[in-house]
Automatic annotation (TrEMBL), chains A, B:
The lineage of its organism: Bacteria, Pseudomonadati, Pseudomonadota, Alphaproteobacteria, Rhodobacterales. Keywords: Lyase, Pyridoxal phosphate. It comes from Planktomarina temperata RCA23. Its EC number is 4.3.1.16. GO terms for molecular function: L-serine ammonia-lyase activity; pyridoxal phosphate binding; threo-3-hydroxyaspartate ammonia-lyase activity; threonine deaminase activity. It is an enzyme of class 4 (lyase). Pfam families: PALP. Belongs to the serine/threonine dehydratase family. The keyword Transmembrane does not apply. This is Threo-3-hydroxyaspartate ammonia-lyase SRY. The gene is sRY. InterPro entries: Ser/Thr_Dehydratase (IPR050147), Ser/Thr_deHydtase_PyrdxlP-BS (IPR000634), TrpB-like_PALP (IPR001926), TrpB-like_PALP_sf (IPR036052).
């Protein structure tokens, strides 16, 4: 993994992925007590940054391999990113999704032309299911994070952050990244190491799913005991990736652990101040900036708002429970 | 009014206004039966395109005139745009707002440092109030639409649309613009006349507030009988502007009149498909594209999603009443 792979991915993504805006608001700065910048990846195609990694990986396959189709396992955002990337390449996609994934994500993945196969998160191993299907049908497995081309694709978000921060005169900041398996976190950290070396990436996780934070402390890959049941479904994995963890360990600052309810509060703030729809996992970095600023340093904080695939019911709950100031 | 004034405004807005993205979604194309492109002005500073006109007008004042302060009358979005532009210039702002304006807009305007004066929409004349205050305190009146520098500022949105459409290969399209007094509509029409002459601007208005549509038919400025009570509060004016109407009459295609409920449906679609928060008046152009396509022609339609300053209660009502497909 190196910066050249991220730059090559950025070239393949040119004209395909959106250069999402970097938003700010004086009202939000006031809540946080510092300047807050939000990289609005919820505005990315399919509603999350995952389209970057999906396109990067699918476009990197040799044409004759790609034509047989691709397969992915995902709670929903990677699913949609891979499904759309496959459709735009004109190749079939099979997506293995947990039965308790949000309905909207399952429906969207199907509507994007993918064949969806549901599995039981507690009793089945999605990696085994994915590998078996891949072999049986000659499909290329697009892993959600432990794959160089996927990490490179997510890293393009970091290249944009470096450029957009420079445009507004920011060289030094904590960069908060929601963290599941670590694909986005490690890709962005690699990009910023080169392009904005005074920025420090901080993984953000929900309480009870803080495997990355604990792993960074212990220096080895720790696991969560729970496998699901978080409203931050998009960023729940059992442990950091084999490939992503060494990168995070080398490049990232300490993790930040945030109660789920703070994600709902941040959703309400993003609604009223950025006019942006975020899902709980997509709001967790903003939640850290707003409500856990004592763990940050410096004048500026950049938060990746990684996704907005949320059911209306959950969104309404956030607005009603936490009316925005 | 001419294109050079819009280009000059664009230069003054450089680094101040956001270049908002032009979004699309295969799901939305399917509902509309053609390619739909959404210019996401809800992501503009203060949550609507009005910051463009506000900054343009305030920045065009001579420094010694500007220093005495500015005044504006507005149901809320122009208020916030002018208030922020004044604050960023370090000069005082007085905003005259109707008593029934959304609470959020009044609060935001105050929080942006402006002095807010409330009036009764049915029994008082906001223009008279504004003019009297302006004279008494030496303030410069920033009109909401009938002012060249305001029209020029809104027109910068048209310059961006022309450039962004060209980037994705679109030269010909109907461009749907929510229309109150006609500042945005006439500014965008002027910009596109020069920069994308095969595009045709179509004003969009709510049922019962179709003064512009009727004026374009009759060739003279018609008035609405109702003065308020629309959920599209941002785009309700009594009649088209003296300055904006001749421009619209010369440059625009026929108006489109949309039931209010369609705006709520479009809000729900923008929530699930674009991850964008829109207010009813800001969703009306998208509503026209989605549900009144028989009045359009051609493969592409571009909709300005002009603002997102909506109370949580109204937003929740839209999501609950019209679950997005």
């Amino acid at each position: 993994m190196n910066i050249e792979m991220i730059r090559a991915a950025a070239q393949r993504l040119e004209g395909q992925a959106r250069r999402t805006p970097l938003l700010n608001s004086a009202f939000v700065d006031e809540i946080a007590g510092r300047r807050v910048w939000v990289k609005a990846e919820a505005l990315q195609h399919t509603g999350s940054f995952k389209f970057r990694g999906g396109w990067s990986a699918v476009s990197a396959l040799a044409a004759e391999v790609r034509s047989a189709g691709v397969i992915a396992y995902s709670s929903g955002n990677h699913a949609q990113g891979v499904a759309l990337a496959a459709r735009l390449h004109g190749v079939p996609a099979v997506i293995v999704m947990p039965k308790d994934a949000p309905r909207l994500k399952v429906e969207n993945t199907r509507a994007l032309g993918a064949e969806v196969i549901l599995y039981d998160r507690d009793h089945e191993d999605r990696e085994a299911i994915g590998a078996a299907l891949a072999e049986a049908r000659g499909l290329s497995l697009i892993k959600p994070y432990d794959a160089p081309e996927v990490i490179a694709g997510q890293g393009t978000c970091g290249l944009e952050i470096a450029a957009q921060a420079a445009e507004v005169g920011i060289a030094k900041a904590d960069v908060l990244v929601c963290c599941g398996g670590g694909g986005l976190t490690s890709g962005v950290a690699l990009a910023l190491e080169q392009e904005a070396p005074d920025m420090r990436v901080r993984p953000v996780e929900p309480v009870d799913f803080d495997d990355v934070t604990r792993s960074l402390q212990s220096g080895r890959r720790e696991s969560n005991t729970r496998s699901g049941g978080s409203i931050c479904d998009a960023i729940v994995t059992r442990s950091p990736g084999e490939m992503t963890f060494p990168l995070m360990h080398e490049l990232c600052g300490p993790g930040i652990v945030v109660p789920e309810e703070d994600c709902l509060r941040a959703i309400s703030v993003a609604f009223s101040r950025f006019k942006l729809v975020l899902e709980p996992g997509g709001a967790i970095a903003l939640a850290a900036a707003l409500y856990h600023g004592e763990q940050l340093s410096g004048e500026h904080v950049i938060c990746i708002a990684s996704g907005g695939n949320i059911d209306a019911q959950m969104f309404t709950r956030a607005l009603e429970t936490y009316p925005s100031p």
